[in-house]
């Protein structure tokens, strides 16, 4: 919700096109920059206490960006998205420690929740602004309420679980920088995020240029995120059940590519179909990237380290997606080179994803998954 509410109203925030590009790129930069600190935060506070503090920080940032003019818009976005970046690192570690026997299902549930939140924010921000007769900046402040609700539910849930005593050890990124497998996971994560954030940030503008109303373009973005739920749910479960999980990589990238070509060259009348294909594929790609982080880690500490590395470097790569996609349009006046770039990134994503699985699984979340994947070439 913190990021999905911005693209549909970006042109109504009183910013230049350059300012819009910067604002759209800020969240991904924050995700990557904050991820570097994920392991240290985990060591200092433990997962549960850290996540509590980060939920509070998220809510404060969302509130700030909606009420304090342009400076608050940027500052609040930095605060909120930095909190999200740290939570992104901690959650795979938490899943590994608490739910190691059900990693596929929990990963699916987590990514489904991300899709639901993004879809609701993308689809409803413009209608909220219109129906409540408030500015676009004030309308995005509505999404502070779900953040506070999540905090309340999280605190209630902690009452039924045992909190870890003190800090939790983790190795850090330094021990992984020489590992080929760690870099493959990182680049795969980065490329799928690169593609997602580029099209996520500019899909409304692409369709507005094709004579689609701004509100309708926002609904298309919401539909893309909503249908990502299906891919998020199916992909990790299917990957752990397929005899050769590499087919899951091939499937999601093929589906994304078909949707991307449709948005670029296909008829506008079929826009819902094209965005559904992108949504389903991208939801699957994200869940597979998170699944790889978990199943490639021997314990929750290793999961935190690999998560920190994959998301820090991966999101920094992804941050260039909206900037380059938009810059190519500004320079050429067309979207052609922008979409050529995304197709090339998808080809690289599929190639690297296949290689990640080909190297073999070094650590699994459960004996059942080990028996399914141990025979990989």
Question: Any idea of the CATH topology?
Answer: Growth Hormone, Chain: A
The tally of domains stands at: 1
User: How big is the Rg?
Assistant: 20 Å
Question: What is the CATH superfamily label?
Answer: MFS general substrate transporter like domains
SSE class: mainly alpha
What is the CATH class designation?
Mainly Alpha
- Return the average pLDDT rounded to an integer: 81
What string gives the helices and strands in order?
A: HHHHHHHHHHHHHH
Shape: globular
Q: Tally of extended strands?
A: 0
Furnish the topology, listing elements before pairings.
Blueprint: H1 17-35, H2 38-45, H3 47-67, H4 69-98, H5 103-132, H6 136-140, H7 144-158, H8 180-209, H9 214-241, H10 246-265, H11 271-295, H12 300-332, H13 336-358, H14 367-373
What does the model show?
This protein is an all-alpha fold. The protein has a single domain, classed as Growth Hormone, Chain: A (Up-down Bundle). 78% of the residues lie in helices and 0% in strands. The chain contains 14 helices and no strands. The radius of gyration is 20 Å and the shape is globular. The termini are far apart. The C terminus is likely disordered.
């Amino acid at each position: 919700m913190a990021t999905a509410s911005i693209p549909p109203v970006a042109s109504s925030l009183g910013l230049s096109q350059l300012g819009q590009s910067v604002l759209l790129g800020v969240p991904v930069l924050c995700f990557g920059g904050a991820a570097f600190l994920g392991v240290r935060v985990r060591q200092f506070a433990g997962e549960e206490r850290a996540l509590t503090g980060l939920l509070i920080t998220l809510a404060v940032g969302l509130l700030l960006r909606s009420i304090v003019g342009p400076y608050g818009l940027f500052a609040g976005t930095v605060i909120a998205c930095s909190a999200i970046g740290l939570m992104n690192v901690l959650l795979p570690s938490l899943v590994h420690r608490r739910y190691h026997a059900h990693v596929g299902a929990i990963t699916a549930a987590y990514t489904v929740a991300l899709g639901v939140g993004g879809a609701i924010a993308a689809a409803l921000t413009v209608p909220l602004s219109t129906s409540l007769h408030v500015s676009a900046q004030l309308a995005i402040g509505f999404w502070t309420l779900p953040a506070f609700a999540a905090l309340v539910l999280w605190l209630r849930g902690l009452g039924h679980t045992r909190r870890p005593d003190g800090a939790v050890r983790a190795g850090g990124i330094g021990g992984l920088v020489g590992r080929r497998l760690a870099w493959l996971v990182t680049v795969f994560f980065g490329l799928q995020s690169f593609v997602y954030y580029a099209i996520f940030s500019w899909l409304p503008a692409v369709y507005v240029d094709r004579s689609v109303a701004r509100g309708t373009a926002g609904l298309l973005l919401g539909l893309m995120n909503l249908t990502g739920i299906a891919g998020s749910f199916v992909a990790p479960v299917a990957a752990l059940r397929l005899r050769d999980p590499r087919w899951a990589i091939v499937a999601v990238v093929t589906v994304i590519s078909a949707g991307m070509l449709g948005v670029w060259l296909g008829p506008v009348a079929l826009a819902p179909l094209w965005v559904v294909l992108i949504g389903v594929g991208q939801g699957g790609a994200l869940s597979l990237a998170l699944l790889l982080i978990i199943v490639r880690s021997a314990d929750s500490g290793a999961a935190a380290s690999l998560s920190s590395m994959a998301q820090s470097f991966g999101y920094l790569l992804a941050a260039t997606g909206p900037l380059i996609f938009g810059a190519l349009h500004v320079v050429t006046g067309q979207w052609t080179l922008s979409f050529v770039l995304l197709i090339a990134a998808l080809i690289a994503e599929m190639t690297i994803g296949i290689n990640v699985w080909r190297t073999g699984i070094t650590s699994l979340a459960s004996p059942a998954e080990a028996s399914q994947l141990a025979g990989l070439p």
